[in-house]
From TrEMBL:
Belongs to the methyltransferase superfamily. GO terms for molecular function: methyltransferase activity. Keywords: Methyltransferase, Transferase. Residues 44-138 form the Methyltransferase type domain. This is SAM-dependent methyltransferase.
Length: 267
C-alpha cells in the first residue's frame, strides 16, 4: 500500500454506510436511469461495498442476475445480509481477477471504486474480458479534482491547515485523473468505444455540526481512517477548525459531484 493509501480502511460495514453508503446510494439512483441498461441482463458489479449501488441496480434496472464482488469480506457479508434478493449473489474477489468467464456478462459496472485500484488499465481490460461483445461497460467516480464530495473536501482543507503533510492524503491530490478529460483518456487508451461521460450531483445534508463530524470518527474510508490515527489533541483541533469554517450550529448542506461513464467493448 502506498503512503497516501495508508488510511483506505475498507471494513466495518455499518460505519461505511453511515459515512458514505447513504450518499453513494443517491448517486447510484441517478446513475442507473442515465445508463439506460437493457432489462433481464446479467450484471457484474466491482467493489460493491455495503451494497448501496447493488440495491439501486436491483430496484431500477430489472436485472436477470447480478454478481457483486468486493475484496473486503466484511463488506461482502454486510451486503449479502442487507440485500436478500434472489437475483443477487456476492463474492469476495478483486477487480483484477473477476470471477466470470470471458464474454459472459451483459453489463459490467462499478461505483466509486476505480480510483482506489492502482493498476487502472488492468482493471479496465479485465472488465472488457468478461463483457459480451455487445455489452455495456460502466462506472462512476467522484469528481475529486473538481471539489468532489463537499464534506470530504472541507475535512482535508481543515486537516492541511493544521498538518501540511496531510496534503498528499486528500483524494483531490491522489486521484487527479477523475476529470472528464482524464476519464476519457483512460477509456480511450483501454480501447473502449462510444464513450459517454456526464456529471451527476447530489446534496449531502447534515442536521448540525455534530452530525457532520461523527462519521469521521468511525474509521471507515480514507478521511475517517486518517482522523482516527490522530492524537486526541490533534483531532480536537481539527474538529474545532472545521466547526469554525462550517458553523458550529444549524444544518450543513454541501454538494457532492461524480462523473458517470458508459462505453461499449472494443470490437
Ligand atoms: C468508496 S467504496 C464504494 C462501495 C460501493 N460501490 C458504493 O457505491 O457505496 C470503494 C470500494 O472499493 C473496494 N475496492 C478497493 N479495491 C478494490 C479492488 N482492487 N477490487 C475491487 N474492489 C475494490 C473497497 O473494498 C470498497 O468497498
Amino acid at each position: 500500500m502506498s503512503g497516501s493509501a495508508a488510511f483506505d480502511a475498507w471494513s466495518a460495514g455499518k460505519s461505511y454506510e453511515h459515512y458514505m453508503g447513504r450518499w453513494s446510494r443517491l448517486v447510484a439512483e441517478k446513475f442507473v436511469p442515465w445508463l439506460s441498461p437493457p432489462e433481464q441482463a446479467a450484471w457484474l458489479e466491482i467493489g460493491c461495498g455495503t451494497g448501496a449501488s447493488t440495491a439501486a441496480i436491483l430496484a431500477g434496472a430489472a436485472p436477470r442476475s447480478i454478481l457483486s464482488i468486493d475484496p473486503s469480506a466484511d463488506f461482502v457479508a454486510h451486503a449479502r445480509a442487507a440485500i436478500g434478493d434472489g437475483r443477487a449473489s456476492f463474492q469476495v474477489a478483486d477487480a483484477l481477477k473477476l470471477p466470470a468467464q470471458p464474454a459472459s456478462i451483459d453489463v459490467v459496472t462499478s461505483g466509486l471504486v476505480l480510483n482506489f485500484i492502482p493498476d487502472r488499465p488492468a482493471a479496465l481490460a479485465e472488465m472488457q474480458r468478461v463483457l459480451k461483445p455487445d455489452g455495456l461497460l460502466s462506472f462512476y467516480v467522484w469528481d475529486y479534482p473538481g471539489g468532489g464530495i463537499g464534506f470530504i473536501h472541507a475535512f482535508w482543507k481543515a486537516a492541511v491547515e493544521i498538518d501540511p503533510d496531510a496534503a498528499k492524503l486528500g483524494e483531490g491530490a491522489r486521484f487527479p485523473f477523475c476529470t472528464r478529460e482524464g476519464l476519457l483518456a483512460l477509456c480511450r487508451e483501454a480501447g473502449w468505444r462510444e464513450v459517454a461521460i456526464a456529471p451527476v450531483e447530489i446534496e449531502t445534508r447534515f442536521e448540525d455540526f455534530e452530525a457532520f463530524w461523527q462519521p469521521f470518527t468511525l474509521g471507515a474510508g480514507p478521511a475517517p481512517g486518517y482522523c482516527m490515527s490522530l492524537t486526541e489533541d490533534h483531532r480536537a483541533r481539527l474538529k474545532a477548525r472545521l466547526a469554525e469554517r462550517l458553523g458550529a450550529t444549524g444544518p450543513i448542506s454541501l454538494a457532492a459531484r461524480a462523473w458517470m461513464v458508459k462505453a461499449s467493448r472494443r470490437g
